[in-house]
Amino acid sequence: MESNQKIIAILRGITADEAVPHIACLAENGITRIEITTNSPSWETSLCRVRQRFGGDIQLGVGTVTTADHLRRSVAAGADFILTPNLNPSIVTQAKAQGLFVCAGVFTPGEIFSAVELGVDVMKIFPACALPRNYPQLIKGPLSQPVSFSAVGGVEVDNVAEFLRYYDSVGLGSALYKPGQRVADTAARCAQLRQHGQ
Question: Per-residue pLDDT tens for 142-151?
């Protein structure tokens, strides 16, 4: 199945034993941009196992990166990109120096402009559900360069299309995966996503 680059699967709370089978299911359904968060059990082990199993077929990211230690461990575990819940200039600068793609959490126009100056690759609008759907369109006018926006927070299977009218990508968390769920449940949620045209 063709890869859907507009969907980022946020696997918060997934265990090392669950990671490979659930990600295999997501990949079979065209979702190959994967985020494993630092507040998941043994997240580094999960990353290493996923990288070993899928190689470069998966774009593998670490989410909820808030410290320099998280960043160091993400690099060591083979991450392609990091996602932060907030705009931390030190983390962004260090990550870019390591050659990582950076998706940083921003909310206000001031944070977005600061993130652009820092070289952030994707503006993760969080929580996106707290703002008008067309928020990126309102912000893009004053920006002097093209900027990529991703909606995270409040994105559900049945409203993905609404967000993607204005955002370049969306992050799907509990709408795709909840800790402890069966692989069959992940497959069912992917099927629901396809029914909504994604």
Answer: 887 889 999 9
